[in-house]
């Protein structure tokens, strides 16, 4: 009897708890239904969002391609327009020094220099998006290094602009969709695919209407012969040597940057002064190298082998100096040019096939820099045909696997810096 009373006394709270849980479950069920309903897209709304994604992507692609074309147009204006009109033999020294001062002053005022690609991607992974901040200062910071002949490519700035545009397009689509939360995966994939398609269409539309864009060089295939196979080993060694030089130059440039840390205008000005002075003797150390590689491929037979090799070596060092002393940009296309120039110099000195030399030296250099053979091959296929893969693939593997001084330390610093900035700590820009 006592057990029954105890069971009744303890059973009442249990029953009350069960009733409370049932009520809470009944209360949560409409919430779940509302959430599910809020995340659904009707056919009409889905079509409207798809059209919006396509149009926003097209606008972003058109604008970014216009900015890229403006960078090369400004470069022609400075060097062919102003430089040609003045006719000064020392114009490279004047233009690069002035450009360095302008870059330093602008970035000191707005802190809008493009971030390296790895930092952009780290922030995208950590935050789910990216922003360049104010568009006009960021655009000017993208334009200046290319306009004044810096040994930097446009890919870093383009990556930041594309990531920022994708983030803004995604936010606009979520607002237009009127959803309670983010898109589901099933909704996101087709919408983002339409946005990418629109971006490509916008870039193509700009090129069709106005020309411009990214002037990528294209090279012929290397001949598949036993002699070419034998040449692959020394050519890989040459590419590895350039990768080692770039790694050492990066370490020295970072030390110099640390020494001049309190002088944000002096750093790019001194770099511009050194770049311009070197360009008086080796003019191809200037510029990203995207257009210049094709020019060099048509002129190299009339140039001494020593000048071609010296250009590749000097430009390799200046890519590291520019990127670490305020001339923000990307290293890929300038380094490809370094491999092309050095490879053509080897061909001029030895009689080896020029296309083989350029393909193998460039691939080994890019693989030594990235430490990622697949990535190196994808980049190199932008400039070299698939038929050169029998030589490029082993060059990429060897370049990535051979030890390069300082690359492990540089990767650790790069990853740490990307995580540090992506977490929201540290300076922005």
The stretches of 5 or more residues where confidence is low (pLDDT under 50) are 1-38, 418-429
* Global morphology: globular
- What helical percentage do the residues reach? over 70%
Our count of domains comes out at 2
Category from helices, strands and their pairing:
mainly alpha
Characterize the largest beta sheet: strand count, sense, and whether it forms a barrel: none
Q: Got a strand count?
A: 0
Radius of gyration: 28 Å
- Count up the helices: 16
What is the straight-line distance between the termini? Answer: 78 Å
Mean pLDDT, all residues: 85
Strand content: under 5%
Order of helices and strands: HHHHHHHHHHHHHHHH
Main location: membrane
InterPro entries: Cl-channel_core (IPR014743), ClC (IPR001807), ClC-type_chloride_channel (IPR050368)
GO molecular function, one term: chloride transmembrane transporter activity
Keywords: Membrane, Transmembrane, Transmembrane helix
Question: Topology, pairings included?
Answer:
Blueprint: H1 2-39, H2 43-86, H3 91-110, H4 117-127, H5 135-147, H6 155-177, H7 185-210, H8 226-259, H9 266-279, H10 290-299, H11 305-324, H12 332-350, H13 354-370, H14 373-380, H15 389-401, H16 407-422
Helix pairs in contact: 2-5, 2-6, 2-7, 3-5, 3-9, 4-6, 4-16, 8-11, 8-12, 8-13, 8-15, 9-11, 10-12, 11-12, 12-13, 13-14, 13-15, 14-15
